[in-house]
Amino acid sequence: MMRFAVLTVGVLCCGLWACEETIEPSEEVAPAGIEQPAPDAAAPAAAEPAPEPKPDASAVLGKILEAAKAKDEEALTGYFKAGFNEPWGGEGVKDAMLAAFGAAVIEGEPVVAEDGASAVLKLKEGEVVHEVVMAKEGEDWKLDVAAYLEKNPLKAAKGKKKAKKAKKAKKAKG
After folding, report:
1. Distance between start and end Cα atoms, the chain
2. Which residues touch 108 (CB under 8 Å, ≥6 apart)?
3. Beta strands in 19-117 (DSSP E)
4. SS3 content of the chain, % helix, strand, coil (to 5)
5. Which contacts of 122-126 are long-range, i.e. CB under 8 A and separated by 24 or more positions?
6. Which positions ≥6 away from 65 have C-beta within 8 Å?
7. Do the beta carbons of residue 105 and residue 164 sit within 8 Å?
8. Mind listing the pLDDT tens digit of every residue in the chain (174 residues)?
9. Nearest CA among 109, 115, 108, 116 for reference residue 140
10. Smallest Cα–Cα separation from 140: which of 119, 165, 160?
């Protein structure tokens, strides 16, 4: 019987002790006459995450090719250097560039200018190789549409050439 009483008292005491709630003060109180440092000053500053590195010219060109394959003109033009509207709006430019970029792959490594402000990359579309000029705008690489068209002039479609020749011949006769 004595064992039963001791066990019962032990279980009750342990049970009560486990159920007690401990209330901890939300702020520590410093003893009188001692100044407590401000909470912000005592806490170490949280380390800010390092910013993600900006993509290089090849990575940006890869995103341009993806946008061209998806025929996502808005995403594509977001990677163009400022002032692209005039050359991009030229006759047949948009369609030709979408077709070329949609079927192309990047070939080799970019050749970055000494000043780091531009880079030339090569795209291979079947057997045709295009030179692409990427330029820095701030810290971002952008496609220079005017430079691309300078290095890779668009060829008029055969049907258009024949139509122009026929028009010229008609004017010469009349």
Report:
1. 132
2. 121, 122
3. 105-112
4. 45, 20, 40
5. 123/61, 123/65, 125/100
6. 101, 102, 104, 105, 106, 123
7. no
8. 555 444 554 545 555 455 555 556 555 555 666 666 555 555 556 677 877 888 899 999 999 999 999 999 999 999 999 988 888 888 899 999 999 999 999 999 999 999 999 999 999 988 999 999 999 999 999 999 999 999 998 875 444 444 455 455 555 555
9. 116
10. 119
Lookup result for tokens 């009483």:
5
Yes or no: say if 126 and 103 are a contact pair by the CB < 8 Å rule: yes
pTM listed for this prediction:
0.60
- Return the DSSP state at 80: B
How far apart CA 122 and CA 134 sit, in angstroms, is: 11
Instruction: Report the C-alpha gap between 145 and 137 in whole angstroms.
Output: 14
DSSP 27: S
C-alpha to C-alpha distance for 2 and 152, rounded to whole angstroms: 102
Q: What is the distance between the alpha carbons of residues 103 and 108, in angstroms, rounded to a whole number?
A: 17
Q: Is the dihedral of CA 74, 77, 132, 154 positive or negative?
A: positive
Q: Which residue's entry shows tokens 């066990």?
A: 7
Distance CA 89, CA 82 (A): 14
